[in-house]
Specification:
The complex is a heterodimer of chains A (about 350) and B (about 525). Chain A is an alpha/beta fold and about 350 residues long. Chain A folds into two domains: about 200 residues, Ribonuclease Z/Hydroxyacylglutathione hydrolase-like (Metallo-beta-lactamase, Chain A, 4-Layer Sandwich); about 130 residues, Metallo-hydrolase/oxidoreductase (Rossmann fold, 3-Layer(aba) Sandwich). Chain A is about 25% helix and about 25% strand. Chain A is built from ten helices and 19 strands. In chain A, strands 7-8-9-10-11-18-19 form a seven-stranded mixed β-sheet, covered by helices on one side. Chain A is globular, with a radius of gyration of 20 Å. Chain B starts with a helix and ends with a helix. In chain B, helix 1 packs antiparallel against helix 2. Chain B has about 525 residues and is an alpha+beta fold. Helices cover about 35% and strands about 25% of the residues of chain B. Chain B has 20 helices and 21 strands. In chain B, strands 4, 5, 6, 7, 8, 9 and 10 form a seven-stranded mixed β-sheet that branches. Chain B folds into three domains: about 140 residues, DNA ligase i, domain 1 (Orthogonal Bundle); about 200 residues, D-amino Acid Aminotransferase, Chain A, domain 1; about 120 residues, Nucleic acid-binding proteins (OB fold (Dihydrolipoamide Acetyltransferase, E2P), Beta Barrel), CATH 2.40.50.140. Chain B is globular, with a radius of gyration of 26 Å. Classes of the chains: A alpha/beta (about 350), B alpha+beta (about 525).
Chain lengths: ~350, ~525
């Protein structure tokens, strides 16, 4: 049975007549999470997981036609049962489960199997077909536990303070920024860029509590932020704003920082492999846990990961999509977030 | 090894030389003497020979991780460094081993004599006792370059900051004849094993690029004009029968050029001269690309000496029989230089030719003709000029040939290494030949990080291969390629060889229809 097909506009559910994270405007879009490459502007109607609703309204527009469900609630659309399940990627992220006449397809969206301190942990969902991402689909990607990362980040802040330096973290505004806030909570005052601040407000309005932060403004005196923590979107690397921060030590938080060449490429003071995507073992365990008979592999290392899955006896196909493949550069909705 | 590992992390992350020096000074202030000596040895090419073959290490890693070879290789091409790939692929360590650097190095020296089985046991135990970053360092100690951007000069500057000793003297000290087992750290720094009086160099006098028209230089007769060469600027010192060659980067490169050392040794007296080290074969200067094969080698083999012989074009003399001549005029120095070389020019040592001209108007043509024999253009030096310290405007000018350019399309992209390992940075370019494309150049420099990121993303989307480090791409992106010279070549499929090609700019305004043809490229040979 063909429940979904892959079209130019995105992943299309044939009997349901709706799209999953479409990249061109459609009538009915079901959205996995709030990142700009998944939740795009211009759709007539949106359906998403409850916690993403405020984020979508904030990023796309307060007046969009939008409906939301809780995890494990469902809605039947043209005979297709649609439900959302935790993806562990960022706040509000969900896998989308479709069931039609007993046949089940799960679209992972972006996901991370390792628990962090802020996101609802990933839950595998059994299905016939699984559409998985593969951003970090190489065995060199193996993440540290959240506790180890916490230690690393906090040690770095303390070391910076000993050298009279301000700790600046670069991480995209939706998801990574909140995760960093949680990792460094209670070490020192946290200042955030307005793009992050506004998203934080939207998230808090939807009922989720976040660590306390202050808004980084142009009129702050240097002495106030000296030796403190600042969190900025990655696009600000090398900007005037970052140069104004007194004695800044900058760190990028991204899975790509696993590789030395990438850490050095950006010319920062530190790179931490803090990723919101599954690592190699995470991808493998997630695919196995679905018990899917057919796996479609999208954005990232689809060639490598699908070849490997076929070698270990899991039928897998590559799928070309227009989701961002770079955790650092394309997940930002630059126009609206960064002024 | 924790301190050493932290040092490497601190150095590799930054591209600021001062931060690297700071990290080195910190390390030197606290590490044990033996570790310090080994660090200097490792960073100056005095490392012990490789005790374990890299292929064995790869096999052991595949055995432990149970990964198929293609996936190992795919990981390797993504990381761009074998030692790092191994460190990332191996499972997390079950224990922790902490030993100082010099103990590790001593153990690895002993390991060389052992059987493969013993080697395996040792290496696997080490892998299982070290964190990922330390494991990387361990792999690097076995073999391979650290690639962390610490030149001898950076190392020397750190030691100078630490000790207050003159940097050039330290350069001589660390290059000198010593091993970590035969000297103490203090004796090494104080240069107990060398005689610095003999090697002490002068700062180079440097030229600015010509800004105004020649008319503004005044009368022609006040100027000495020579060809400009693209080699290694060197200061050659002969004092008390010892010969030293300093590069412009203040590194001692004496051992790299044995022919020059031999030729200089035959000359009488003591002197300090300034010149250009060039690859010279059958009386013609070769390209810098050829000279590059001779640089930074641990051993200069006989084969290489025959393949790329080097020579010296002598420009100037700074000291003669212990008298500093730098305050004398160029004209006076030139007379002394000519006297020194009257009976001594050879295939290896040549006096830089003074170009005979009467009017400024003759020079432009000479400059552009310079390309024909691999010269970079002209040097204009005021006859009354003293030998300045560093760069001083007005007395010395360099006037380079204008580069030639063509428009070509990218057909292959390859990942870089080190800092560039994550991006496609090395490209192959083609021009039109009938209804096909033919490769004319490979180039990697000249683009901004931002452009490289953009191109990498495009390559990922448009590549024909999905595996391996080289990608064939749709011929779509057009670039303006600049180069210094062009000649017919039988070794190249296109029939032409470009000299020093680099990317001038990305022509987003052009399509593959607008690129040059092989005929239009060849026509450049006729007109130049």
């Amino acid at each position: 049975m063909r429940l979904v097909k892959f079209t130019k506009k995105g992943i299309y559910c044939i009997p349901g007549k709706f799209y999953l994270d479409p990249w061109y405007p459609v009538e009915y879009a079901i959205i996995s999470h709030g990142h700009a490459d998944h939740a795009r502007w211009g759709n007539k109607h949106y359906l998403c997981y409850n916690q993403s609703k405020a984020i979508l309204q904030h990023r796309i527009g307060a007046d969009i036609s939008i409906e939301s469900l809780l995890y494990n609630e469902y809605k039947v659309i043209n005979g297709v049962k649609v439900s959302f399940h935790p993806a562990g990627h960022i706040i509000g992220s969900a896998q989308i489960r479709l069931e039609y006449k007993g046949y089940i397809v799960v679209f992972s969206g972006d996901y991370k199997t390792q628990p962090d301190f802020i996101t609802t942990p990933f839950e595998p969902v059994r299905c016939h077909e699984f559409i998985t991402e593969s951003t970090f689909g190489l065995p060199i990607y193996k993440w540290k536990s959240e506790e180890e990362l916490q230690q690393e980040l906090q040690d770095w802040i303390v070391q910076n303070q000993q050298n009279n330096r301000t700790s600046v973290f670069l991480g995209y505004s939706l998801g990574k920024a909140q995760r960093i806030m949680k990792l460094v909570e209670n070490v020192e005052e946290i200042y955030v860029h307005s793009a992050i601040h506004n998203l934080n407000k939207a998230i808090e309005n939807s009922g989720k509590s976040l660590p306390t932060t202050k808004l980084l403004t142009a009129d702050l005196k240097k002495i106030e932020i000296q030796n403190k923590i600042v969190i900025l979107p990655p696009a600000l690397l090398g900007s005037k704003m970052i140069k104004k921060i007194p004695n800044a030590a900058t760190a990028i938080c991204s899975g790509w920082m696993q590789i030395r060449g990438n850490r050095r490429w950006k010319g920062v003071d530190a790179g931490f492999a803090v990723s919101d995507h599954a690592d190699w073992d995470g991808l493998l365990s997630a695919v196995k846990a679905t018990e899917a008979e057919k796996v479609y592999v999208t954005h990232g290392s689809q060639a490598v990961f699908s070849k490997y899955l076929n070698e270990i006896g899991i039928e897998a196909h590559e799928l070309k999509t227009e989701f961002g493949e770079d955790e650092l550069e394309t997940s930002e909705q630059l126009k609206t977030d960064i002024v | 090894m924790k301190d050493f590992s932290n040092l490497i992390s601190a150095i590799e992350i930054t591209n600021k030389t001062n931060a690297k020096i700071e990290a080195l000074v910190n390390y030197f202030s606290s590490a044990p003497d033996k570790d310090k000596l080994w660090l200097i040895a490792l960073f100056t090419g005095k490392r012990p020979s490789r005790p374990v073959k890299s292929n064995l290490m790869k096999d052991w890693c595949m055995e432990i991780t149970k990964l198929p070879e293609w996936l190992f290789l795919e990981s390797y091409s993504s990381v761009g460094d074998l030692g790092e790939t191994l460190a990332l692929l191996l499972p997390n360590p079950k224990q922790h081993i902490e030993k100082p650097l010099h103990v590790w190095v001593d153990e690895l020296i002993d390991l060389k004599q052992k059987t493969d089985q013993e080697k395996k046991k040792y290496v696997l135990a080490a892998w299982n006792g070290l964190q990922s970053q330390e494991r990387l360092i361990f792999n690097k100690l076995i073999g391979g370059s650290f690639r962390i951007g610490v030149s001898k000069k950076t190392l020397v500057n750190a030691l100078a900051k630490l000790s207050g000793i003159d940097a050039n003297q330290l350069m001589h000290s660390i290059i000198g004849n010593w091993t970590p087992d035969t000297i103490t750290f203090d004796d090494l720094l104080n240069g107990e094993h060398i005689n610095y009086d003999n090697s002490k160099p002068y700062p180079f006098c440097l030229a600015y690029a010509l800004e105004n028209s020649l008319i503004n230089l005044g009368e022609e007769k006040n100027w000495q004009v020579e060809y400009k060469w693209d080699g290694i600027r060197g200061q050659i010192i002969k004092r008390k029968e010892e010969v030293f060659i300093w590069s412009r980067g203040e590194e001692l490169v004496t051992q790299q050029f044995p022919e020059i050392v031999e030729a200089i040794s035959k000359l009488e007296g003591s002197f300090v001269i300034d010149g250009e080290i060039l690859a010279i074969k059958d009386n013609s200067v070769l390209l810098f690309n050829d000279l590059q094969k001779r640089l930074n080698r641990k051993n200069v083999t006989k084969k290489l000496l025959e393949e790329v012989p080097v020579g010296l074009y002598v420009y100037d003399i700074l000291e003669l029989n212990e008298v500093d001549l730098r305050q004398e005029s160029m004209q006076e120095r030139r007379i002394k230089l000519e006297q020194l070389f009257t009976h001594n020019t050879s295939d290896i040592l040549k006096l830089s030719e003074i170009i005979d001209f009467k009017n400024w108007s003759e020079l432009d043509e000479l400059r552009n003709a310079a390309r024909g024999f691999n010269s970079e253009g002209l040097m204009l030096k005021k006859k009354s000029s003293i030998y300045h310290v560093g760069r001083k405007k007005g007395d010395w000018w360099k006037w380079k040939v204008d580069p030639l350019t063509i428009d070509a399309v990218m057909i292959y992209a390859q990942k870089g290494s080190g800092r560039r390992s994550s991006k496609f940075t090395d490209y192959t370019f083609a021009v039109q030949k009938d209804d096909k494309l033919v490769t004319v150049a490979k180039a990697y420099s000249g683009l901004t990080d931002k452009e490289i990121t953009e191109i990498s993303r495009w390559v990922n989307k448009n590549a024909i291969e999905k595996f391996g480090p080289v990608r064939t791409v749709k011929p779509e992106l057009v670039f303006e390629i600049a180069f210094e010279g062009i000649a017919y070549s039988k070794r190249h499929k296109s029939g032409v060889a470009l000299r020093f090609p680099r990317i001038k700019r990305w022509r987003k305004d052009k399509t593959v229809k607008d690129i040059d043809t092989i005929e239009s490229v060849k026509s450049l040979i006729e007109t130049n």
